[in-house]
Amino acid sequence: MYLIFGYQEKHLDIKSWLRDLEKIAVAGDADFAGNELSEEVARNRIPAARTRKAVLDFLVKVSRNQTQLDKNSPFVKALLESIPTDEVPERLVRYFTGVHDYSESFAQCMIHRNGAVRNQSHAPDRILSKEKPARAFAEAIGTRVPKTYQLGVPANQLLPQESCVVKPLGLSGGRGVHIVTIDSGGRVTDHTGSVSYNSWSDFTSGLTIEDTGHKVWGGLWVSEELVRSPMTNELGARDLKAYAFYGELGLFLEISRWGEKKQYCWYDANLNETSVGVWPPMTSKRSVPYSDIDLQEVSRISEHIPAPFCRIDFLVAEEGLVLGELSFRPGQFHGFSKDADRYLGRLYKKAEGRLLDDLICGKQFPAFDSAKSTSVE
Predict the structure, then answer these.
(1) Which of 155, 157, 254, 354 has a 20 to 30 A CA-CA distance from 272?
(2) Any idea what DSSP says for residue 163?
């Protein structure tokens, strides 16, 4: 049985415990008091309903200057973070953080959006995440995409190309993608796994559903152009993923898939290197000059999508950006730091408001309508 400042957990008087922590914080050791509280939260001994109420009552007293604690004290911050965000009254959030509400969390926005989309058959998230509608959308707005050689065929019907990308139809996020070249002798190299095959048929016979790691995949494949890199030491183009919020840019993630390990580099909205938290870590520095990239064009693409957020995945080619795919629920969205999560969450909320205003005023989305009509063919 743990002891908390001399109180047995089973008989803990939470109000007395908070008063003792307050005394320590006021005495000048607010960091210690905050850390002590954070440790108890980490042990999952704080979330009890009675404890939450006591902590909220205590925070109300702080907000009314009925204690000797400053609202910026580490102890007060730890108190605030010990309560589930959806249980903190908006007025307390505004007082302690200056943020309008705790719903300004990108991770929470993604979770809520995913739940809502399940009941929407015509949501952009559903339509534009598919290969054919996404290409129709890109064509409608005049954005270049990789050439399609074959779309939606079984593996044994894939035709050999000197260089190409072979990927599962309907899956995103790089799952099951193969970057393939054929030499003059007909030998096939799969650069994704650094595997060589004697013939094209040997390569295609190894393409199976297990390869994608996705149980609901339909078993059809896409063969498309391998977009070349402007860098001589890399065969294919790097990824540049734009976190776009209906006309406003938030972050960019650059991924290089060439070498022993993937390399990641994060950029802010102006393509300056930045850090955003624990995933994925910065493993490289800028190696591709982005001075020629038209940020307004990237922003313009997102304004054609009637959704508050979309990650627009580009390939960085010699001639500029090539649209790869559109993702509405990027993986590891919960891996950002608290500051980055809040920053992206605010962008999401602002975009949500702008989109609603535009819809009320009758804004049309012809490029999306074209894509939607393609999805039902």
Answers:
(1) 354
(2) E
Quick check: helix, strand or coil at residue 14? helix
The pLDDT of residue 227 is above 90: yes
Q: How far is CA 228 from the centre of its chain?
A: 26
pLDDT at 39: 59
Q: Name the E strands within the chain.
A: 3-4, 7-8, 148-153, 163-168, 178-182, 188-190, 195-197, 221-224, 238-245, 248-256, 263-268, 310-317, 320-327
The single-letter code of the amino acid at 155 is: A
| Buried/exposed 16-39: b ≥16 CB within 10 Å, e otherwise | ebbebbbebbbeebbeebbebbbe
**Whether pTM exceeds 0.70:** yes
In angstroms, rounded to a whole number, what is the distance separating the alpha carbons of residues 334 and 340? 10
Three-state DSSP at 279 gives coil
d(CA 371, CA 133): 4
